[in-house]
Amino acid sequence: MERRSFFKILSSVSAGVAASSCSNKTDTLIPLLVSNTEIVPGEEQWHPSVCSECSAGCGVIVRVMEGERTVERQGHKFRERIAAIKKIEGNPLDPVSGGRLCARGQSAVQSLYHPDRVTAPMRRKGTRGTAEFVPVSWDEAIDAVSRSLNIQQSADPGKILFLTRPESGSRSATIQNFLSALNAPPPLTCSLASFAVERKASEVVFGWRGVPVYNLARARYVLGVGADFLGGWVSPVYYARQFGEFRRGRPGVRGRFIQAESRMSLTAASADEWLPLLPGSEPEFLTAVTRLLLDARLARDPEQLPPAVLNSIKSADVASLARICGLNVNRLERITRDLGESDAPLVISGASSPNTNSLHAVAAAHYLNALLGNIGRPGGILAPNQDLSPLPLVGSVSEKLKASNFLLLDYQNPVYSLPAAAGARETLSQLEMIVSFSPFIDDSSAYADWILPDHHALETAQAVVPAVAPGSAITVGLPFIRPLYDTRALDQTLVAIAHKMGKSLEPVTPERYVKSLLPPDQTWDQVACRGGLWQEAPKPVGNEVPRVAEAQAAHSEIAVSPDLARFPFYFQPYLSLQFHDGSGANLPWMQELPDPVSSAMWNIPVEIDPQSAARLDIRTGDWVRVQSPYSSFEAPAYVYPAAIPGVVSMAIGDGHQHYGRYASGRGANPIEILAPVLEPSTGTLALGGTRVQIARLDRAPAGFVQFSPRDREQGPWGYR
Amino acid sequence: MAIDLDRCTGCQACVAACHAENNLPLSDPESAAKGRAFHWIRVDRYYEGEFPSIRVKHMPVLCQQCDEAPCEPVCPVYATYRNDEGLNVQVYNRCVGTRYCANNCPYSVRFFNWFDPVWPEPLPLQHNPDVSIRMTGVMEKCTFCIQRIQRAERDAASEHRQVADGEIQPACVQSCPAEAMTFGDLNDPESKVSRLAASGRATRLLEELGTKSKVFYLERSE
Lengths: 720, 222
What we know:
The complex is a heterodimer of chains A (720) and B (222). Chain A has 720 residues and is an alpha/beta fold. Chain A has 21 helices and 27 strands. Chain A has four domains: 3-112, ADC-like domains (N-terminal domain of TfIIb), CATH 2.20.25.90; 122-192 and 392-465 and 477-513, Rossmann fold; 213-382, Dimethylsulfoxide Reductase, domain 2 (3-Layer(aba) Sandwich), CATH 3.40.228; 569-706, Barwin-like endoglucanases (Beta Barrel). Helix content of chain A is 26%, strand content 18%. In chain A, the strands form seven sheets. Chain A has a six-stranded mixed β-sheet with strand order 5-4-16-15-14-6, covered by helices on one side. In chain A, β9, α7 (236-248) and β10 (256-261) form a beta-alpha-beta unit. The model of chain A is unreliable at 1-34, 539-544 and 711-720 (pLDDT under 50). Chain B has one domain: Alpha-Beta Plaits (2-Layer Sandwich). Chain B has 222 residues and is of the alpha+beta class. The longest helix of chain B has 13 residues, at 146-158. The interface between A and B is large, with 88 and 69 residues.
């Protein structure tokens, strides 16, 4: 660890923990709520916490110094000194972030100090969807919500629907306890970043719960299939760190990396070779590679596979499979040989844009890894950080919404993350009651009857189980600044509602959550001081390989719109690093961060290949209409030289009707026009299952802003 | 500084880190359209070849801290000069806003404040008190996080020791998940950055201009 980082950790004294092992350089102990007078001007303090911007659960350290804000009391404005967060960095002790942090994680401070946060509980004033609210007191809000929840609960608790983040930890444990006290069904998630297909495949094939860990840093030859693991996938910081090691971290060894993907993503751009796959052809690609591996007698352990799988692979015809993928057989043979002959081969597979056959693709990659004999070995697939409490399920949220009466929203935005054809807006306007805990008024909270705003993650206590971690890991964050507004932590709100309803509910505090797992040589104080509980990675299992079970015998067809002549383009919305599932769009730093592909700022373009663009007379910056059989939107076009002909992509993030001043009314939502087709095994929305047509609009090219024009020499030179 | 393009993934963590550390003004769609957005460090992308054998390459570009800096001789008021440590620094309260320096910079890394920056309340709570906020009419650019350099030097001096190699990390270097960026003392031949700069993989951006820049790019292998 670097010296500076070491001091940072030493000097961070965690909230309210009088731990003898923690000491400050200046020997001041920082109490739970820092009083204004205890912030010494110019002196910095670093506190461990958890990043909640995505479910990767990176451990962070937070720099706290004196800040000033304007407050209004009894009509008078004055300046108040408070402890303020200045910067967020990765926690060097955390095995996931390792002291590093992505752009989105660093912007969490902007959601804390966002000018459009909900500052107090509110009641709906106007009609649903108009986002007109009046502030009320907490007592009034809790009274009203618990009264109507009580009525619903005694009538039919099955019609209570709680939507939350795809996250496992103390917070989600409290939610689950709350719902079981009410006899209501367990929470669901409608986030597009749930990675349910990856979880399901690992459960089906290996019997593991959670997303498997790919030990990229120790692999030598890596074939990535459909997983944008350096971009908006499960744990971008962890995999970027591993990638650095893989490339240049070992003296004399440089890992070789081939990426097969239907889009030139950040990951594909970092690869030595990119295999442009047609969307949805990942299972065919992997079957072809597996067949070639068996033919070349490079499979190390063919006995690993279930016989049915082995037979179906042996009967596959490589030439026709390669044609479906749009690839050349010789190229596949070369890559298969290199993969099979490598000392430490690894196949990383995922569904960054899930298709209806994605489970089959990820499972096929697991079989390939089993044949390569790398399961549970260094440089191979390792068992996941097992989820301690069950994760919220994904399963067909739009159906469940229609069947429910009482909706509780926790950072979930079904109006945004479901296609227009799923009818979320109509359903939400008809529900009996909607309660939102979101700290922002988003497209779905605009329909809420009550908003009971949660604290920001940095103002609250929580323990989070990271989605991907080497070994077993829980990241812990405790509050070290005073909440900025009249908000309440979700667990407090739920406890208050439960008590009003006459139910008993104990919140699951991070301490309670961690305590049962504490090894004898560690104390809770130590865990709180370091920002997490991390245990050694389990020893490589050697020859003892988990059972490999059969996923699905038959390929499921990928769903496409029937009229291919009218809708000739594949359309694939994707999760980007900055906006992820769309929830990052309200942060000004993320809006002005130039897109890694198009360099676009403040507006997300539609990526189209040069050939199709020339045929349709579309140039970068032109406005186009993207029309699916269900709906359409208008957006600027970006002619992407690395786009696959006939495949149109767009990052998810824009197109919010309500989401604060930086996102409201900006750009278009690509989810809106999707066919309401689900991946059958998990109920995840199939992002890649829709075909579209594209037409240029006769509108002056305006509104498309790039930070760097494509060719800097041709662009305005030195105009800044 | 050395930047390993073989490690860099183009994720732009460095860009966000720079904004957080250095109180960069917020842009809006209108000002960005006029080319007035601020990014002291940016990630340039290059396309090589054509589909299907196309390559996309990413390259972080920040002030190259040139020894023969084209921006310096054109400043009429010595607002930009090289300090004792070889840093190309900008003195905000000397700057009169001629913008000659930005015009002369071959790397396009200088940014002019056409207006006073605006942050809606309570966003200013995030501001780093170690870095001054620039006002209308002033040029600004990457400082290699001079405030972090000074802090590390002060800490080392108070403990009566030398600054250790790797102890100083500008915000971009600190944040980089792939550890593509290395910062250190180029005058010390034993430092990690000197060893990387002397390796066969190192090149400098627009070296033919003779700017003697101090950012070394380690080329991406095939």
